[in-house]
């Protein structure tokens, strides 16, 4: 959400500089585009990490369920029962 706010702010600022004929508007507009790309990349990275953690959690749950159904109680990898 923050990325969207700053992108919109930079785009509006770039438009304002462009309408006044100032060359700083180009830099502000480019900054907005770069910030949008970085924000989207960051969000995709977080989404991928969240999915990976969900996969690992599901795998751990299946392994624990498998260990319980085989022996009737949870056993660790070192042979101790819990």
Mean pLDDT: 75
- Domains (count): 1
Q: How much helicity do the residues have? A: over 70%
Kindly name the structural category.
mainly alpha
CA-to-CA gap between the ends? Answer: 45 Å
What string, H for helix and E for strand, traces the elements in order? HH
Number of discrete helical segments:
2
Over the alpha carbons, how many angstroms does the gyration radius reach?
25 Å
**How much beta, percentage-wise?**
under 5%
Overall outline: rod-shaped
Instruction: Count the beta strands.
Output: 0
Low-confidence stretches: none
Largest sheet: none
Question: Would you write up a description of this structure?
Answer:
With about 80 residues, this protein is mostly helical. The chain has one domain. Helices cover about 80% and strands about 0% of the residues. It contains two helices and no strands. It has helices at about 1-20, 25-70. Helix 1 runs antiparallel to helix 2.
């Amino acid at each position: 959400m923050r990325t969207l706010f700053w992108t919109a702010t930079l785009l509006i600022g770039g438009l304002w500089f462009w309408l006044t004929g100032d060359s700083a508007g180009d830099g502000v507009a480019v900054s907005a585009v770069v910030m949008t790309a970085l924000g989207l990349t960051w969000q995709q990275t977080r989404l991928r990490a969240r999915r990976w953690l969900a996969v690992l959690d599901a795998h751990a749950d299946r392994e624990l369920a498998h260990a319980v159904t085989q022996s009737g109680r949870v056993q660790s990898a070192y042979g101790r029962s819990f």
